[in-house]
């Protein structure tokens, strides 16, 4: 990347040439140059009409104006072309000043031009050279020695240089602040994308675990049972296969639902969470073929419609809990109880299986990801998961989700 000197300390990355205050100062200096050049030419023509040097002064003034117009096209970087242009501009100005000292005050815009293009040391040297030339020109015009003519040009040059260097340093400082802000925003956006990706991966893993993985596990068990009874009891084997076929059909519907909007298929069919839990209980009972009976109870009525996220999470938790009952508990009966209270909704999944020690789930003693996935779902909703169980006494899994209170009617 090309660089330019901004403040005499170090090169900084090239920005959009001049921006903000620097651009305004550039326009002001351009206007000042042509105003001073026109005023100097007019003064010379009024005071020295018909002299032999007049055509030279007019021609050099036009050449100086043309050269100055070409400058902005070349840009503000110290390239070979811009350096040649600046050298030609200064030489033509010096020749004009030698012929007509009144053109000396055009040096002020030239100070700015040199500071804008050259590196610091070269720019300060050019400013000093132009200042000496102005002092010499003013002394030629004076009839005697005048201290003001010796001190005023260096003072003007010092003020002009200080203003320019200060504005350039301010521009560099603002540019650094903008770069830091943009970099911070990019880093924040990247962090948010990573967090969103991780959250989406976790959500998909829970969805797949609670639906497709559980369905495939049930199919595997049914197909293994069909294989064992294939010769001894063909009718039972066919029933197992038909049940596995139903589970496969259900999994296919869930997979298609994932592609659509990741909503549970039971909820997508309409009827809300109550109907979805009844359908789940009936389906699990049918798939168990007499080994497990699942009942569903709804207590109370919701004061407000539960959000889709809450309904989906509770249904997935019920699916995961029943899958655990089927695979691990050895239960013959299970119950789904959905209770609608004023400030919360509670889902209980109870079974009469052989139970377990709940502390084993915290230490990783229970196989699978069902309970951690349930906790993760409820954590996203501000809810809690409670497990009550003991060996030989069955299990009760309770999921509690807070519900926003309904605004009271002022009447």
Helix run count: 12
Structural class: alpha+beta
Percent of residues in β-strands: 5-15%
Q: What order do the SSEs take from the amino end to the carboxyl end, as H and E? A: EEHHHHHHHHHEHEEHHEE
Oligomer: single chain
Stretches where pLDDT is under 50 for at least 5 consecutive residues are: 1-18, 362-367, 406-411
Radius of gyration: 43 Å
Please give the largest β-sheet.
5 strands, mixed
Shape, principal axes of CA atoms: rod-shaped
Q: Write down the overall mean pLDDT.
A: 78
Share of helical residues: 55-70%
Report the strand count: 7
**Number of self-contained structural domains:** 2
Distance between the termini: 71 Å
- What is the strand arrangement across the widest sheet? 3-4-5-7-6
Transmembrane segments: 25-46, 53-71, 83-111, 123-143, 149-167
EC number: 2.7.13.3
Cofactor: [4Fe-4S] cluster
Protein name: Oxygen sensor histidine kinase NreB
């Amino acid at each position: 990347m090309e660089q330019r000197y901004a403040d005499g300390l170090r090169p900084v990355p090239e920005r959009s040439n001049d921006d903000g205050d620097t651009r305004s100062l550039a326009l002001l200096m351009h206007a000042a140059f042509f105003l001073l050049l026109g005023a100097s030419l007019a003064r010379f023509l009024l005071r020295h009409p018909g002299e032999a040097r007049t055509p030279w002064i007019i021609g050099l003034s036009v050449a100086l104006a043309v050269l100055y117009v070409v400058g902005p096209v070349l840009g503000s970087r110290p390239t070979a072309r811009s350096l040649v242009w600046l050298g030609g501009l200064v030489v033509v100005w010096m020749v004009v000043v030698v012929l007509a000292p009144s053109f000396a005050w055009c040096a002020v815009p030239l100070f700015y031009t040199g500071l804008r293009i050259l590196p610091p040391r070269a720019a300060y040297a050019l400013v000093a050279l132009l200042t000496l030339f102005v002092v010499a020109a003013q002394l030629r015009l004076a009839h005697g020695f005048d201290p003001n003519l010796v001190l005023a040009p260096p003072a003007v040059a010092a003020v002009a240089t200080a203003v320019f260097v200060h504005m350039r340093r301010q521009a560099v400082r603002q540019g650094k602040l903008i770069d830091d802000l943009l970099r911070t925003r990019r880093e924040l956006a990247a962090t948010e994308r990573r967090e969103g990706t991780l959250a989406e991966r976790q959500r998909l893993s829970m969805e797949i675990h609670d639906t497709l993985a559980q369905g495939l596990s049930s199919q595997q068990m049914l197909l293994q049972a069909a294989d064992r009874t294939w010769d001894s009891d063909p009718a039972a084997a066919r029933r197992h296969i038909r049940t596995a076929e139903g589970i496969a059909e259900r999994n296919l519907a869930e997979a298609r639902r994932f592609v659509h909007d990741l909503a549970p298929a039971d909820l997508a069919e309409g009827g809300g969470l109550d109907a979805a839990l009844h359908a789940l209980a009936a389906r699990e009972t049918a798939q168990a073929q007499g080994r497990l009976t699942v009942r569903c109870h709804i207590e109370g009525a919701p004061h407000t419609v539960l959000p889709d996220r809450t309904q989906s999470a509770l249904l997935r938790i019920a699916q995961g809990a029943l899958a655990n009952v089927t695979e691990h508990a050895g239960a013959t009966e299970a119950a789904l109880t959905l209770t609608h209270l004023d400030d919360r909704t509670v889902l209980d999944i109870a079974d009469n299986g052989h139970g377990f020690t709940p502390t084993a789930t915290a230490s990783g003693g229970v196989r699978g990801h069902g309970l951690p996935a349930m906790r993760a779902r409820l954590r996203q909703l501000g809810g809690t998961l409670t497990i009550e169980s003991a060996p030989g006494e069955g299990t009760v899994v309770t999921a509690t989700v807070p519900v926003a209170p309904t605004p009271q009617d002022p009447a």
